Amino acid sequence: MPLYEYRCSKCGARFEALLSITRRDEEEQKLTCPECGARRPERQISAFATGGSFGSSGFSSSDSSCSPGG
Asked: Residue 17 in contact with residue 2, Cβ under 8 Å?
């Protein structure tokens, strides 16, 4: 089940929700902001989906344990 990121259009709170891929649209209709209770938060595009950096993972291309035979 994928993790989706949301932002409340009323109070600006950001939160995440695990939603079924096949029922996401239906489940989103029921979501409420955990801070203020407002309905229908805005789905956000995650950093991963927009080409976020892999540098924070701790791996680098020069790491010998990541190269073939290393």
From this structure: no
Report pLDDT digits (tens) over 27-60.
Answer: 999 999 999 999 999 999 876 655 555 554 444 4
A 10 A CB-CB count for 6 gives 20
Q: How far apart are CA 24 and CA 17, in angstroms?
A: 10
Q: What's phi and psi for 6, nearest 5 deg? A: -135, 155
Which amino acid does the sequence have at 18? Answer: L
C-alpha to C-alpha distance for 43 and 40, rounded to whole angstroms: 9
Its pTM stands at 0.63
How far apart, in whole angstroms, are the C-alpha atoms of residue 4 and residue 24?
9
